[in-house]
Specification:
binds iron/sulfur cluster, about 0% strand, flat, Endonuclease Iii, domain 2, 10 helices
Length: about 200
C-alpha cells in the first residue's frame, strides 16, 4: 500500500483491509472482485492484484509463511529490489539496503551527486549498502527513510537540525536546494509544415 502513497493516506485503508483480510489465508481465498472493492479509492490497482496473487503464492508455495530469502521475496509479484530490501530489513532485521525516492534524494545530497539519480543507480545502491548498519539494519533503514520524509525534504530541507549536516557534501557546498539534479528536458521539437489554400475563380476555397 505504501508504494507511491503516503502513510497518512494509507492508514485508514490498512485498518479496514486488516479487518476484512486478517490473515494471509483469508486474502488468498478471497474473490478478486472483493479485493479490488476493498482497495477502491487508493489507486494503482496493480498493487491490490499483486498482493492478492502474493497471498496465494505464500499460501500454496510457502505454507502460509512469508519467505525470508532475498531471491524468494524479489520473485513475488510487484516487489522490486528496494521493496524486498525494505521488507527483509523491517520484518526480519536482515541487512539489505533500500533505495526509494526519499533515500535517493538524501544520498544524492550527501555526496553532492553530479548527475540525476536515474543515471547513477549503481553508485547510489553501492552507497546505500556501504552505509547500512549491519547490526541494526531495521533501525538504519527506517531512520534513512524518516530523514528523507521529514528533514531532507524535496523543498526547504531542514539542514540545521539534520544529524548528517557535517558530512553532507551538498550542505557544505550550499547546493542542497539544487540537488538531486533533474533530467534536462530536450529542446522542443521543431517541425516545418506547409499549408496551402486552393481557391477557384469565384473566390471559393
Ligand atoms: S544536511 Fe541537509 S541536504 Fe544534507 S542530508 Fe541533511 S537535510 Fe539533507
Amino acid at each position: 500500500m505504501l508504494q507511491q502513497t503516503q502513510v497518512k493516506t494509507v492508514l485508514s485503508y490498512f485498518q479496514r483491509w486488516m479487518v476484512r483480510f486478517p490473515t494471509v489465508q483469508s486474502l488468498a481465498l478471497a474473490d478478486q472482485t472483493a479485493v479490488l472493492k476493498q482497495w477502491e479509492g487508493l489507486g494503482y490497482y496493480a498493487r491490490a492484484r499483486n498482493l492478492h496473487r502474493t497471498a496465494q503464492i505464500i499460501t500454496e508455495r510457502y505454507g502460509g509463511e512469508f519467505p525470508q530469502t532475498f531471491e524468494h521475496v524479489l520473485a513475488l509479484p510487484g516487489i522490486g529490489r528496494t521493496t524486498a530490501g525494505g521488507i527483509l530489513s523491517s520484518a526480519f532485521n536482515q541487512p539489505w539496503a533500500i533505495l526509494d525516492g526519499n533515500v535517493k534524494r538524501v544520498l544524492a545530497r550527501l555526496v553532492a551527486l553530479d548527475r540525476p539519480p536515474a543515471r547513477a543507480m549503481d553508485r547510489l545502491w553501492a552507497l546505500s549498502e556501504f552505509l547500512l548498519d549491519p547490526v541494526n539494519p531495521r533501525d538504519f533503514n527506517q531512520a534513512l527513510m524518516d530523514l528523507g520524509a521529514t528533514l531532507c525534504t524535496a523543498k526547504n530541507p531542514a539542514c540545521l537540525i539534520c544529524p548528517w549536516r557535517s558530512p553532507c557534501a551538498a550542505y557544505n557546498l550550499g547546493t542542497q536546494s539544487e540537488l538531486p539534479m533533474r533530467e534536462s528536458k530536450g529542446p522542443l521539437p521543431h517541425k516545418v509544415i506547409a499549408v496551402a489554400v486552393i481557391g477557384n475563380d469565384q473566390a471559393q476555397v
